[in-house]
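[job 4471] stage=fold_predict status=RUNNING
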Amino acid sequence: MSANSENNRKITLYYNANTSMGKQTFAYVSVSKKKILAIDISKTKVTGTQWLQLAEKLNLKVGDLVETEHPDFVKHYGTETVDFNDEDWIKIIQMHPEVVQYPIVINGEVYLLIKNPSDFAKFIE
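[job 4471] inference complete, writing structure tokens
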């Protein structure tokens, strides 16, 4: 079996197990018939390069991955975010992974933000 076909059978999930969205998405992904690489960002440090690649594949800026209205974000950084660059956003995510808005699922070359756990069921069909 080629590495490419192996990748098509594996799902990678970036999620936060400390959030209800993360727990629910993990549950949906777990019942999939595919192999799963689940990366709990509350326990596993994701590199800056990985965050940049994830944002790029999702056609987003790194800052778009952050929920700027999250209480922890507001507590540490306030409500003015216009001066943050990609490096700043990466540091924020690495120091406070709870501010990442949504789980991210990768299935082969398809990247998807999971805004509702049931979105995964539609995604996998």
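[job 4471] summary: The radius of gyration is 15 Å.
[job 4471] exit 0
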